[in-house]
Amino acid sequence: MADALDRDGIATLRFDKYGTGRTGLGAYQDHPEELDYPAFIRQARAAYNSLRDQPETDARALLIVGHSEGAMTGLLLGGTVHPRPTGLALLQPQAIRMLDLVTLQLKAQVAEATRQGQFTREQQRAVNAATDAAVVSLREHRPVDTTDLPPAIATLFEAFQGPNARFVESDDAVYPPDTVAALQPGTRVLLTCGTHDAQVPCVTTNALATALRHAHTGGPGRVTLPGVDHLLHDTDHPNSLAPPVLDALRRFAQH
């Protein structure tokens, strides 16, 4: 994405968020259980301010571009930083609560496994019910009963507890459509979804797209990317950005 923006003459600042690259756990190295989602927002705000303060930067023409969870972070930044960005690119964004999205993903996987004969319909219903119960337990701060969950799903819910509990709780507390009202009216917003994206299906962006319209943000709004998966690839471009992604990003940035 940075290369694509560079070709249009747009400077970018990228950084390794907590848990990645040279940053690692940073200040949370010795107490990872204290790392929560607001820490990632603070980190991104510091990056935005750093870019804003560069002598080459036009502070009246700042953009925020984020992908997946990063798009949700960008959305939250867009309504709180100063100056406000002129545009937001929300690429395959986390557009509903985290645990609701995880539930949708898991049920889709179980449905496909059932279709392939790995589960009976009765087993499918039992796993779905256990998944719903696990989410309720997490939100009520109770231990998750993984008895009726397949090993892979049980492992996932176990990982959502312990040292990761604070992050999961604080991320799940955000409902992205509710944050849109803080955006400055007229802010240009690109919201993408890919027809082959199993992690963030287009249907999960419906409420966010509606909220953006009600907040009187500018276009292009939601753009559906045919054949594009969650990593912004398609079958002909498995290791690089698919042409529909590049086209949408270019059209957004040129304005």
Structural overview:
The chain has 255 residues and is of the alpha/beta class. It folds into 2 domains: 2-97 and 175-253, 3-Layer(aba) Sandwich (Rossmann fold), CATH 3.40.50.1820; 98-170, no CATH class. The protein has helices spanning 2-7, 37-52, 69-78, 98-115, 121-139, 151-159, 165-172, 206-214, 243-253; strands spanning 63-67, 87-91, 188-194, 218-225. The protein has a 4-stranded parallel β-sheet, with helices on both faces. The longest helix has 19 residues, at 121-139. The radius of gyration is 19 Å and the shape is globular. It starts with a helix and ends with a helix. The mean pLDDT is 96.
What characteristic shape results from the CA principal axes?
globular
CATH architecture of the largest domain: 3-Layer(aba) Sandwich
**Helical percentage:** 40-55%
CATH class of the largest domain: Alpha Beta
CATH topology of the largest domain: Rossmann fold
Radius of gyration: 19 Å
One letter per element, helices H and strands E, the order comes to HHEHEHHHHEHEH
CATH homologous superfamily title of the largest domain: Alpha/Beta hydrolase fold, catalytic domain
How far the N terminus sits from the C terminus, by CA atoms, comes to 17 Å
